């Protein structure tokens, strides 16, 4: 992969899959704006990427806040001149994990909608026109195996990630002929502790953040120019829903 001359925005980038992706892009020549709500962790993550000699910035942003999202996109455009890559990674699920739908309430659902769905739409809308004007763009949306299979006690989260798949496929049909590709990645059981939740896959291990970042970066690279509107599942051949 070669991201020389490319500029990326990555949401939820202070840790996990988002940070692994930011590191991979910077390591391979790209400039990156890391977006996250955790200011301290974001600052530490940005500092750790400066060793690669690229332009790396952090922007504190709640992706559910459209005004703040637009400010982040404007900041990136000012710093980089253009945005080539958008990785919509920010999301939330743990706050209601294990709660059956019958015991849930609307505040839980709205949080998933605001962050997982609207956050993705806000950032995409903030950069898509510039990509179309230049005739180049790579958008990768993080969904989940929950959005593909549906997972018990995660009905609201499954709903929100399923929505991302529909959005990805529809948007790809609108923009692919104009040089912008839109794809989704659906992780399952990603954890740098490869023994964590090992029982969920036939590989009997978890996937690493770097393994997921490799897939995301492939889709963000120029070599994936003929791929759009596709969802890639990365779950080690999942055995339990």
List keywords for this structure.
alpha/beta, seven-stranded parallel sheet, globular
Descriptive report:
The protein is of the alpha/beta class and 241 residues long. It is built from seven helices and seven strands; from the N terminus they run βαβαβαβαβααβαβ. The protein has a seven-stranded parallel sheet, with helices on both faces. α2 (39-49) links the parallel β2 (31-36) and β3.
- Please state the overall shape, judged from the principal axes of the Cα atoms: globular
**Sheet bearing the most strands, described?**
7 strands, parallel
What is the first-to-last residue Cα distance? 33 Å
CATH structural class? Alpha Beta
Number of domains: 1
**Mean pLDDT value:** 96
Q: What is the CATH fold-level name?
A: Rossmann fold
Give the topology.
Blueprint: E1 7-11, H1 16-27, E2 31-36, H2 39-49, E3 56-60, H3 66-80, E4 85-88, H4 106-134, E5 137-142, H5 145-149, H6 155-175, E6 180-187, H7 209-220, E7 231-234
Parallel strand pairs: 1-2, 1-4, 2-3, 4-5, 5-6, 6-7
Helix pairs in contact: 1-7, 3-4, 4-6
